[in-house]
Amino acid sequence: MKIKDLHTAFLANPSVSTDTRKIKEDDIFFALKGDNFNGNAYAQQALDHGAHLVIIDEKEFYINNKTILVDDALSTLQDLAHYHRKFCKAQVISLTGSNGKTTTKELINTVLSSTYKTIATKGNLNNHIGVPLTLLTIQLDTEFAIVEMGANHLKEIEFLCNIAQPDFGYITNFGKAHLEGFGGIEGVVKGKSELYNYLIANKKSIFLNADDVTQLKKLSTYPKKYGFSSDNSKYYNIKLLDAQPFVAIAVENTVIKSKLTGTYNFSNACAAIIIGKHFNVELSKIKHAIENYIPENNRSQIVNKNGHYIILDAYNANPSSMKVALENFDSLKREQKILILGDMFELGDAAKKEHQDIADLAINLNFKQVILVGENFNATTTKSIKLRDFADLKVYLEVNNLQPKSSILIKGSRGMALERVLKLI
What we know:
- The strands form five sheets. The chain has a seven-stranded parallel sheet with strand order 8-9-7-10-11-12-13, with helices on both faces. It has a six-stranded mixed sheet with strand order 17-18-22-19-20-21.
- It starts with a helix and ends in a 14-residue tail after the last strand.
- The chain has three domains: about 5-70, Udp-n-acetylmuramoylalanyl-d-glutamate--2,6- Diaminopimelate Ligase, Chain: A, domain 1 (3-Layer(aba) Sandwich), CATH 3.40.1390; about 90-290, Mur-like, catalytic domain (UDP-N-acetylmuramoyl-L-alanine:D-glutamate ligase, 3-Layer(aba) Sandwich); about 300-425, Protein-Tyrosine Phosphatase, Chain A, CATH 3.90.190.20.
- The longest helix has 15 residues, at about 75-85.
- The mean pLDDT is about 95.
- About 35% of the residues lie in helices and about 20% in strands.
- The protein is built from 16 helices and 22 strands.
- The chain is globular.
- The protein has helices at about 5-10, 45-50, 75-85, 100-110, 130-135, 155-165, 180, 185-190, 195-200, 215-220, 265-280, 285-290, 320-330, 350-365, 375-380, 390-400; strands at about 15, 30, 35, 35-40, 55, 65-70, 90-95, 120, 145-150, 170, 205-210, 225-230, 235, 240-245, 245-250, 255-260, 300-305, 310-315, 335-340, 370-375, 385, 405-410.
- Helix 4 runs parallel beside helix 11 (about 265-280) and helix 11 (about 265-280) packs antiparallel against helix 12.
- By secondary structure, the chain is an alpha/beta fold.
């Protein structure tokens, strides 16, 4: 079946699935493969659950005319998404970066949806599967699609750009994330900049944080850029008023009081503001959208439990995000501060040094108590409470109650799943 014909079938039943456990009536099921599964083996189950079509790439699983045999199911999914993106009239805004992608994407969507019909990446479905799935949620009347792009190696953003063909782009920052795959911070900058490269080559527009020296230098001669800055008069001026604990912003004699904690969320909110302004969203609507956005999914959430004030930032971590989180926590005007930090993953040969640097910073900031969890943190030389894994942390907290009315920062990589700590407090 040609992509054009498959797209016609998709328009008649515009919903796709890659998981038979979540399949809905009349979905088109794509039989994807992974290291530990083969979606082809679930073709019959998909039909039994009501799938309209099943896209397979192994002929032994062919069942009837509702099963479509292709050379590669994943490539077909990507080609269908690319075709649909070109078929629809929505403008695509893509964003990437080391930290803050998902929060920034949510803020942009919140702002633009106040005025336009939008769709956005759900959760963090931002890879070679998630981006196509996002594009396939674009409807014929969608005006903006906000597409998050993640990467842990070179050429990945370039590949995603060729599928999504963004009209606009924004990079949150360049930080020490996925150092193992990128081969160091230089690789991170090069990899994330593939979004810039695509936009420049296609003469598309770029949004930027003009206070970020690396971004400003890379785009110094590019004319189609729109930036925000706290002090550079060439760009749209936005000021940080406060972050105790929530970020408050001054823009055009208007104060926006967000529910975002941490100074690191200032630039995330600024991106949403400038993108909203660029597309003529009224400032009053921008203010309302940002002030009513509440972070969730373990991203800088404020939790009050048993008298403790908890910042739950356990969705993910890397050396850059960990450093700013610790510095922000140190700046808060609160007493009895306790850190519970989990290992940072995908750092490769830099893991030992980066964990030692964060452990040293935690001690030097002189918090009341520092609890480090994970094999990498356990191997550091700092004089703190060091625990090998979550099981050891559970035992420690069951025996040693945290001091009453503490302020607690919980942060670690996704694989550490430190949100489980809440049940122990």
